Amino acid sequence: MLRAATYLLVPDVAAAGAYYERALGFHCDYAAGNPPEFAIYSRGGLAVMFRRAPDGSRIVPKEAQGGTWDAFCWVESVDGLYDELKSRGATFAYHPVVQPYGMKEFAVRDPTGYVLGFGQDWQS
Predict the structure, then answer these.
(1) What is the pLDDT of residue 121?
(2) In what order do the strands lie in the sheet with 92-98?
(3) In the beta sheet, which residues pair with residue 66?
(4) In sequence order, what DSSP letters do the residues of 55-95 get, joined into one string?
(5) Do 26 and 43 contact (CB within 8 A), yes or no?
(6) CB 107 within 8 A of CB 96
(7) What is the pLDDT of residues 61-105, one digit of tens each?
(8) Residue 13: is it exposed, middle or buried by C-beta count within 10 angstroms (0-12/13-18/19+)?
(9) What is the band of 124 on the pLDDT scale with cuts at 50, 70, 90?
């Protein structure tokens, strides 16, 4: 296996992509349609695919179902990434915290309500 991608249904592919570019530092690898019906955005080893949902009212992010994240990414410098995303104006679901399972992590929430977690293995 070479790569994996999170697949997210969104009401507006262009708006979702614009947020991921501006606030999270992703770039567009591919977009189809005008306006786009599908797109792939990536940053480093994390790829996110967006597909326009025909009925946006049926989108239910994991957090609304009792979960935590819709995607999670391990990073080299959780504090550095947090500082960068904060300066970009990202919306946070929670700020950096050291978890009992040995990760220091934080999460952002996108305009659709999806939560992306970012964490680093952490030794106290």
Answers:
(1) 95
(2) 71-74, 115-121, 103-109, 92-98
(3) none
(4) -GGG---GGGGT-S-SEEEE-S-HHHHHHHHHHHTPPEEEE
(5) yes
(6) no
(7) 998 888 889 999 999 999 999 999 999 999 999 999 999 999 999
(8) buried
(9) low
